[in-house]
Amino acid sequence: MATWLPFFVIVAAVAIVLQAAILYAVYMEVRQARERITRTTADLHARMDPVLSRLQVLLEEVQPRLSGMVADASEITHLARSQAQKVDRIFSEAVDRLRMQIIHADHILTGALEAVDEAGTKVRRTIWGPVQHASALIKGVQVGLDFFRSQRRPPDRTGEQPDEGLFI
Q1: pLDDT over 90 at 141, yes or no
Q2: pLDDT tens sequence across 57-70
């Protein structure tokens, strides 16, 4: 067993040296990556700073205009709402007036139709009533005369009875 001990010590020493070399290589790679990232970040800052400063200047110039546009849009909206309310009120008043005129015209037409109906009723009573009475009287006289004429006639030889001529 004593013969194996120096062998294990040598293997362990080689492994430790090998690990140290790998750790050193990893350290160097991380250091180089950090330097590249630092350079890239600095380059990105160098390129972005002018853009950001221009954007800042642009925003400072545009901000009053945008504020004015928003204020104008707000005022236009307020005026449009006010005008819409006025138009609505005018249309409502016009519809109410039209409704009142239609009701008034309806009353006038109803009154006129009632007057025409009443006049027609009076015409029927005053003119048509006596005309009907006279017509009935004339028809009564005609029927009476026809009756008396049929009584004077001799009976027909054809065998017809006098009442058969009246049958329809």
Answers
A1: no
A2: 888 888 888 888 88
Tell me the H-state helices in the chain. Answer: 4-123, 129-152
Backbone torsions φ then ψ of 154, nearest 5 degrees: -75, 155
Phi/psi class of residue 159: alpha, beta or left (left: φ > 0; alpha: ψ in -120 to 50)? left
CA distance 168 to 165: 8
Handedness of CA 46, 52, 56, 59 (dihedral sign): positive
Q: For 97-134, b where at least 16 C-beta lie within 10 A, e where not — what string?
A: eeeeeeeeeeeeeeeeeeeeeeeeeeeeeeeeeeeeee
Report which of residues 29 and 150 the model is more confident about. Answer: 29
CB 86 within 8 A of CB 94: no
pTM higher than 0.90 for the full model?
Answer: no
Residue 159 sits at φ, ψ, to 5 deg, of: 95, 10
